[in-house]
Amino acid sequence: xxxxxxxRTLPFAAVAIAASLLAGAAQADTPAPVDPTLxxxxxxxxxxxxxxxxxxxxxxxxxxxxxxxxxHQADALLTPASTLKTVTSAxxxxxxxxxxxxxTEVRTTGTRKGSVLSGDLxxxxxxxxxxxxxxxxxxxxxxAAAGITTVTGxxxxxxxxxxxxxxxxxxxxxxxPYSYSPQISGLTVATDSEYTMDTVKVTVTPGAAxxxxxxTLFPAEAPVKLSGQITTGAAGSGSSxxxxxxxxxxxxALSGSLAAGAAPVDFYATVEDPARYTGEVFDGALARHGVxxxxxxxxxxxxxxxxxLLTHDSRPLSELIVPMLKISNNGIAExxxxxxxxxxxxxxxxxxxxxxxxxxxxxxxxxxxxxxQVDGSGLSRYDxxxxxxxxxxxxxxxxxxxxxxxxxxxxVAGNPARLVGGTLAARMRGTAAENNVHAxxxxxxxxxxxxxxxxxxxGRRLAFTVMVNNFAGPRPRSVLDSIAVxxxxxxxxxxxxxxxxxxxxxxxxAPATRWDDCETLGRC
Length: 524
Fold this sequence. Notes:
- By secondary structure, this protein is α/β, with parallel strands linked by helices.
- The chain folds into 3 domains: about 40-100 and about 320-520, DD-peptidase/beta-lactamase superfamily (Beta-lactamase); about 105-165 and about 275-315, CATH 3.50.80.20; about 200-270, no CATH class.
- It is about 25% helix and about 20% strand.
- GO terms for molecular function: serine-type carboxypeptidase activity.
C-alpha cells in the first residue's frame, strides 16, 4: 500500500461571474458546420448546476483549418493549474531542444598523490531533475575505480547553476512539506523512477499489536530527524498513521497507528536544502565504495577552482517530459523553467525563464491576449491564461518538429498504464474518448481544467481547452470529460451527454485539493 503525505483540503470562495455565450450564429456566406449540433450539445453540457456561480471558458478548433468550431468565454483570464505545463514543455522543447540533457559533474580541488586526494570532491549539479540515488551510487563507484580511496577534505554540494530561491512565486506556505511542492535547486536528488525530487520516502511497517511500527528512510542518508511514534494496532483496526514535516526544518513528526498484519505504507516528505541533501547521499555512496571522506558535507560556493573528474548525463528532454506531463511532475516543470532561463537568458531564475517562455510565445504569435505566468508548473495562483491562448498553443505545436514526442507525452484518456494514461488513466473509460483523447489535466481547490486533442469520427483532429474556475462545491470533472467525449464521439453521443449527473464518488468526495490531480495519483 502506498500513499503520499495526507493534507487537509482548503476552501476557495466561489466568485459569481455572469456567463455570456459568444456569438454563435453563422454568417450567410460561412460554410455549414461539419458538426451542426456541436454548439447546442456543449451548451447543454455547460448547463450543469455544478457550474452555477463558477466561471467556465471553452474553445474548440479544427487544427487543420484553424476554424473555431465552438467557444464560450474563450478570452477569459483563468487559473491554469497544471495545464500550464503544456506551455512550459512546449517552450522547453523549442528553446532547449528535444535532445537537451542535464549534466552532473564530480570535480576535484587541491592535488592528488596516488590514492589520496588532498582537497575536496565537488558534486556540481547541472539542474538534473531526474538524478537518482542509484546515479550517485554509480558516480561513487567510478570515483573508487579512478583509484581515489581517501579525500582529506569533504564533499562540496554545488547547486549554484540555479539561483538560491527554492520556492516559486505565490506558492502556498502550507504546501511546503508535501511532495508536489519540492524546493528547486541546481542539485537535487529524486526518490523514485517518477522523479519525485527533493523528497525522502518514509516506509512504515507494522509490528505485533501494541508494539511501535518500524520506520525506515530512503535514502538512508536523508538528513531528517524523527519525532513521535506510530504504533501497531490490533489486526483489522485500520490505519491512522501519518508523517508530517514541521515547517522549515528537517523534522518528521510521526503519529497514529497501523493495524497488525497490514501492508507497509509509504509517505513522501520534502527535505530542506536539496543540494546539501544530495551531497549527503553521495557521501554515503562513497563510503559504501571504500572512499573515505574525512570531513562532513558542506555547501559549495560555486566559485571553487576545480578539475573535472566524472560526469553523468540525464535522459534527453524528450523523455523527461513524459513524467512531467503524464503524472504532472511539478519539479521537472520548474527545473525546465530555470534551465530555459540559464541557457537562453544567462540566469537560472524563475523571472528569466518565464521571460524566455513569453518570448517564445511572442515569436510564435501567441502574445495576445496578455496573461500572467510566474512559474513552470502552474502551482501558483498568480498564473493566468485564456482558453483561447491554450488552444492556439495546441494548434501551433502540431507543426513543430518535436510534436510527436510532445503529443505522446500527454495523458491518454482511459488507458490504465500509469505512464500512458497518467492523470487520465481512470477517466473516460468505455467511451469514444478512450485511447483517443490526449490532454493535460490541471486542478487545485476551485479549479478543474482539461486541454488537449480529440480525433473526431470523421478523422479531424480537434484541439480543445475547457477551464472551470471558482467553484466551491463538488468537482465538475464529468462536465469536462463529457465535452471531450462529445468531440471524440460526434453527434451520436449528444443524448447521453446533456447535463450529466455527478457520479456517486464525485458527490461524496471533498473539494479538489491544491495540487494538480493528487486524488488521481494518490499523492495528496
